[in-house]
Design goal:
The structure is a single chain. By secondary structure, the chain is α/β, with parallel strands linked by helices. Helix content is 27%, strand content 27%. It is built from 5 helices and 12 strands. It has helices at 39-50, 78-90, 138-141, 158-172, 213-231; strands at residues 14-19, 24-27, 30-32, 54-59, 71-74, 96-99, 106-108, 128-130, 146-153, 176-181, 193-200, 205-212. An 8-stranded mixed β-sheet has the order 5-4-1-6-9-10-11-12, sandwiched between helices. A two-stranded antiparallel ribbon has the order 2-3. The protein starts with 13 loop residues before the first strand and ends with a helix.
């Protein structure tokens, strides 16, 4: 399905997208992670590509294969993903960064070099520390990059969900944020559909009703194009 002509303004832009879940190793064979499939982020990368953008996808663990025209960089941990994002943005070539990956919030303070045996231990206590907050570093170091943040929240009233999203957008200095309630049927990590609220830095709010993730991604690209056209933030 072709995007609306208004979305074609992203054509020729360099777009960086993160997608999927990160994993944090407890030992060589066990990880802490989440249920993200990467479908939303991959769909966003594909819609930007369809609109004519030059797209690079930094993927954690994903369950879908991106289109062949999209350059893919594979990562596992939050630290690896943060490093890959920094390396790409350091090139100075990117116009838009969409942080759609479900980056884990916690990592073990220490990783065991050997498999932790259940035969020798009656319990396992893990000390966790925060993972790098990728989006909080972007606008400080790359102020000209258009930053789209994503926020997945659980079982909040609509007003609280939107307030939380506005707080997160302001904290990151993002140009736009996409937020959804993953407790809602059809809008969770492993679904084929999604429903999202989009908030811009100027306070414009749009609700994208429940639809396939590719359709939702197309709407997000359309809104990005509108914001670029209105604000002219890119060279």
């Amino acid at each position: 399905k072709l995007l609306a002509p208004s979305a074609q303004i992203v054509g020729g832009k360099k777009v960086l997208v993160t997608a999927g879940r990160t994993v944090e190793y407890i030992d060589p064979g066990r990880v802490i992670s989440n249920n993200s499939t990467g479908k939303m982020g991959v769909a966003l990368a594909e819609k930007a590509y369809e609109a004519g953008a030059d797209v690079t996808l930094i993927a954690g663990k994903i369950t879908v294969k991106p289109s062949s025209g999209i350059r893919v960089i594979h990562t596992e941990t939050a630290l690896e993903m943060a490093g890959a994002v920094g390396k790409e943005l350091d090139s100075g070539k990117y116009d838009i960064f969409a942080a759609a990956a479900a980056v884990g919030d916690w990592q073990p303070d220490e990783k065991s070099a050997e498999k932790i045996s259940t035969h020798d231990n009656d319990s396992l206590v893990l000390k966790l520390k925060p993972t790098p907050k990728i989006i909080d570093r972007i606008k400080k170091k790359y102020p000209s990059v258009f930053l789209l943040a994503f926020r997945a929240l659980y079982a909040l009233r609509e007003s609280d969900l939107l307030d939380n999203a506005r707080w997160r957008m302001e904290k990151a200095g993002a140009d736009m944020i996409a937020v959804n309630d993953v407790s809602k049927k059809g809008a969770g990590f492993e679904s084929e559909t999604n429903e999202m609220y989009i908030i811009t830095k100027e306070g414009i709010l749009e609700k994208i009703p429940m639809a396939s993730k590719h359709e939702v991604a197309g709407e997000i690209v359309r809104i990005i194009a509108r914001e670029i056209s209105a604000g002219k933030p890119l060279a």
